[in-house]
Amino acid sequence: MSRAETFETELDAYRNRVERPLVRLFRGYAAGQRWWLLVGIVGSVLAYGALLVTPVVLGTTIDAVFNGKGAYTLPLVPAAWLPTDRAAQFRLSAAVVGVSLFGGAVLQWVRGVAMNFFAHGVMYSIRVDAYEKMQRLDMTFFDNKETGEVMSILNNDTSNLETFFDNALGDSVRIVVIVGGILAVLLYTNYQLALVTLGAVPLLVGFTWWFVRLIEPRYARHRETVGDLNTRIENGLGGIELVKTTATESYENERLRGVSQDVFDAQMDVLKLSYFYRPGMQLITGAALLATFVLGGLWVFSGPPLFFSGELTTGDFVVFVLLTQRLTGPMAQLSNVVDWYQNAKASGKRICGLMDVPVRIEDGPDPDPLEDPDGRIEYDDVTFAYGGPLRGSKESTGERPETGDGEVVLDGVDLSVEPGETVAIVGPTGAGKSTVAKLLLRLYDATDGAVRVDGHDVRDVGLADLRSAIGYVSQETFLFDGTVAENVRYGRFDTDREEVVAAAEAAEAHGFVERLPEGYDTRVGERGVKLSGGQRQRIAIARTVLQDPEILLLDEATSAVDTETEYLIQRSLDRLAEDRTTLVIAHRLSTVKDADRIVVLDDGEVVERGTHEELLAADGLYANLWGIQAGEVDSLPDGFLERATEPSADGRT
Prior knowledge:
Elements: H1 3-6, H2 10-16, H3 21-29, H4 34-50, H5 53-66, H6 86-136, H7 139-143, H8 147-189, H9 191-198, H10 200-238, H11 240-245, H12 249-302, H13 314-356, E1 377-385, E2 408-417, E3 422-426, H14 433-440, E4 448-453, E5 456-457, H15 463-468, E6 470-474, H16 484-488, H17 497-506, H18 510-514, H19 533-547, E7 551-555, H20 563-577, E8 581-585, E9 597-602, E10 605-610, H21 612-618, H22 621-630, H23 640-645
Parallel strand pairs: 3-8, 3-9, 6-7, 7-8
Antiparallel strand pairs: 1-2, 1-4, 4-5, 9-10
Helix pairs in contact: 2-13, 3-13, 4-6, 4-8, 5-6, 5-13, 6-8, 8-9, 8-10, 8-13, 9-12, 10-12, 10-13, 12-13, 17-19, 19-20
């Protein structure tokens, strides 16, 4: 069973509410490419209209030139312009056919270029807007959505839309022009025999309606399984080191086989029905061709059969056979249009669902400026629950369903940090330490209470102002696949090389960078895999040094490195923290014992606060944690182990 079958995320909920996604996307994005679309449609009409010229001219030529029956006429051409000599009539017929064939080829090229510019332009705009929307979504969205699923929307689903807007629209015009033109010519030539050919139309419509009803849920299922497959591949490649060190390659292979089997099964469900539909369409149109050929042939040989009346010339019969044969291809092509439509509809629902997910953390209509902040931080009776409704949000009034369990992670936290002061937050795993840091950055908003910087509620301050004032160094350092210099200056893109080097020197990174093969121009690989953990961390610190923030936020910045590297990193952090307001989230108590104040969290509540010496003297939770890390105690307080090993609402610390 796939992820999509086991629970519904917020994106799934909004996707399921989307109606007429292709109409919505067409209205929203086609306007910017309307001239290409207009050229493509006009080119299509003329190109496919040219295909009707040859059968009509051949029919007239056979009757008037070769059999000498009737006058030599061409549609839309005045009789006075036409020659009366048979040889001249033949030459004109050949010229008209040649011009129509050549002109049709040129118009097909124009049609193809225009429709591709239109389709790719629309795809480009949708992909960019979808990516920009994801950049604006708050972290709660990404907590509940796999990376592979999101990538599937940006890649596979936008590509499906491009295919629809190019191929399906173009072929739809082709079907309308050719089928409409053929039926008009047939009705004009001999309406009685045309009714035989038209008898297939109700069958084709009914068969297509049945197919659409059955294929739509199968396409939706197929798109979901593709998202699951992308997620599994992304997870397997992202965790390749863990896979290898635990010798679980066979386990991961089996998991990939499982989701690949789901994709295979879903795709086969689509293809089996499609392969039944296409031959069925061909059978119906082929039966129409056979009936037209038999009745028309009998009519030419022995007069009107059955209840038909009048004359059917050899030329008219040739026109019927040729045009009815050309009717078969477009009608059979209708199956591809339906396929593209259903596939694009499923993809369009996923894209529109993404566009509909609300951006809950964004600037207000008139955000307060945060210029040259002093760096005073306050947490005023802050309560937070992952997935719970936010104060003043639509969720809290019941207008939108909650998507999480609302388990409280922080409960009534009060904390203040004065400008230039260093305050450490410590506690067991799952106490809510990192959540405190993320509320300050406004990666999440408090469920109740307020977080303030210089007296401004962070919800009232512009996000760019707030986050540019805070330098954040976390345990999980992320580097982009670029050079060392590019990663150091990330966020300060106009910084020159001298400033980059100075920042690296301040972060104790310059020495190892100089020893890299190309120094600051060395590529670090995806997520910085070519560097050690300590090296990545020092690059991140150099990036923060270059930012020169007023507030420094350190979240377990040295917990994943060896002692020597920790010393180097800690020395650079101490230098960085001078004269700055610093909030330190720490697991190793030895790194924060010199902090101005230490706040102890347990189960989301502040249980102790004071200096290192004061907390040791109080002989509470902090003293027990210190004793454990220093090897001075052998036992834990009652209930501590249960709290420390209990996961938080979404697995965070």
